[in-house]
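Let's practice the habit of predicting before peeking. Look at the sequence and jot down your guess about where helices and strands might fall. Then scroll down.
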Amino acid sequence: MHAPVAGRPPPKMVEAFSHPAGSVAAATPGGATAWRGRLLHIHVAPEASYEMEELAEAECVAGRGIVGDRYYNGTGTYSPKPDVREVTLIEQEALDALARNDPPLQDGPIVLEPRDHRRNLTVVGVPLNHLVGRRFRVGDVILRGGRLNFPCKYLEEILGKPVFLPLYNRSGLNCGIERGGIIRPGDVIELLEP
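Done guessing? Here is the structure:
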């Protein structure tokens, strides 16, 4: 186990399948299964509101998060509120849709770089909304989908862009780490059997 940052105790995380959304979904069959995705980008920020930093590889620690990230450190905006947030993911396809102004919920296209959306992992070809209550792997790391991530007004304030409505229902997935390890951009992402 890694030492807490600056004498701070580790943040309290909710186990992904213990979260109300994750527990119901884990017991319910269905969802997309015939897919194979890929990890595009890894980002962390050491503290709340800090710029996201892109990593060439990251260490994921079960029950804790990504080493160096604000939620691993317990210094994130929402760290005082226990939740499933060891790793957060967002689909590149959602970012592409914003850039096309699809759906047209704002005055025009919104371009978000992978560091802008404040999720840890940007993925492609992964149906995140179908992974609540499911186990999947990113490289050798096994994640558990706990709940969908919803956009917040805080993100709009930081970015100065009207992203709340266009990201609603496609703002990513909050996960727990079942088996830790090292992940790198290019890693394959696949659904695992229950």
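How did you do? The domain at 8-28+36-191 is CATH 2.40.33.20 (M1 Pyruvate Kinase; Domain 3).
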